[in-house]
Specification:
CATH class: Alpha Beta
Strand content: 5-15%
Strand order of the largest sheet: 3-2-1-4-7-6-8-5
CATH topology: Spore Coat Polysaccharide Biosynthesis Protein SpsA, Chain A
CATH architecture: Alpha-Beta Complex
Structural class: alpha/beta
Number of helices: 12
Number of domains: 1
Order of helices and strands: HEHEHEHEEHEHEHHEHHHH
Length: 443
Amino acid sequence: MWYEILFRVLSIINYVVLIIIAIPLLLQVFYILLFFVKKKTFPKSDKKAKIAYVIPAHNEESVIYDVVKNLLGKQNYPKENYDVYVIAHNCTDKTAEFAEKAGAKVLVLDDPDPSHRKALYPLKYGIDYLINLPEGSYDLVIHLDADNYVNKEFSSLMNDAYQSGIDFACPYEGSLNGTQNYYTKASALIYAFNSRFGGRVRERLGISAHINGSGATFSMKMLKECGGYDCVTVSDDAEFNFNRLLEGYKGHFVEEAVVYEDMPSTFKDTMNRNKRIGSGSMGLLKAKMPLLFKKFFKTWDFSLMEMFLLYEMNFLGIFLGIWLPIYYAYHFTFTALVQNGTIAVTMMPVSYYSSMLWTTLIVAACVLLGLFFIFGFLQAAIVAVTDYKKLGARKRRELFTAVLLFPFSIILYGVTICIGGMSKPSWGKVKRNTVKSNDEFSG
């Protein structure tokens, strides 16, 4: 019967799909299982680089003064060796005035082009300005957002990495308001995963770090060689990472350097952030995938394949959100109808399809429970126990509810990333939470 042949063909296709899914998932499981490896540290250096912090800001008067003042006043690094630049981008408030009052060097960018209402344009403007300063003005450039705080040793730790020969690095992504509510706890744990598991294991195995977002550190030498901040997409930080990886630069993870970020505190802001990530990631995968494979088969550098597998999960999320529900609804309906005699079969006995029905149910239940345990409770519990202070908590128990609900956070994250992957890229201002919840940067 044709419907029996169709069932067999679709079953084979589904097996192929499951294998494709398993490869990137197993890589993430591998990172979690190696949580015990020691973090990489870089030797202390007496030589001090000149550092420029670059902070793009659009109407950030509510947070910019405290951020700049903290950065200039609390770094355990020679004050004459670093400056803070704030790029006031199309501001209609007192961002520039407050930043200058706090001690920052302010660059004003008035750009009427509506397509340039993205963080990459003020960041590019600031980096271009620094590149064109006299030779030797700065050795390192560090990108921060207008609501970020960093630990007191941040500049020193990034300098140690630079003096060890590193041109491209990222810090641990911690949370400023990780205990504020459910949404901030969930986001803090998700961001910490890539640092605590992925970042540490990649660094130990010599795989290039994923350098995205706040705290990204670039040597001036590398910026000049690559022509500055050569990005055009809404996911400019990830695009910059792709570009450097394709050019042969290896990113590194400086775990003891911590940037504390303001996590989204509402469903709307969580949705908007994840949609933007999903949309940008999908666009980058489409644009860079051929280049990644071409470079990989020339160099056999696993960093390229690992990067592809990570971004492939965004595509798989969309595919799975459509394929799996439809296929398994069809699968269970077909086998159930065969079992009760509604559909006649000739290729295989009824007992075969009956066995397949129950086997699929049992296997699916076991797989889902395993994924819930590994990607939900296990990874969240490890992060909450080992790195709770970096998530803005004073005591581990403050994250207990977040650990229990983390599997559902992962589902929400996956769904919103998928929605973003099928949406047009957009950039919108999110609510800033001015709560300071960690003594490392408060005061």
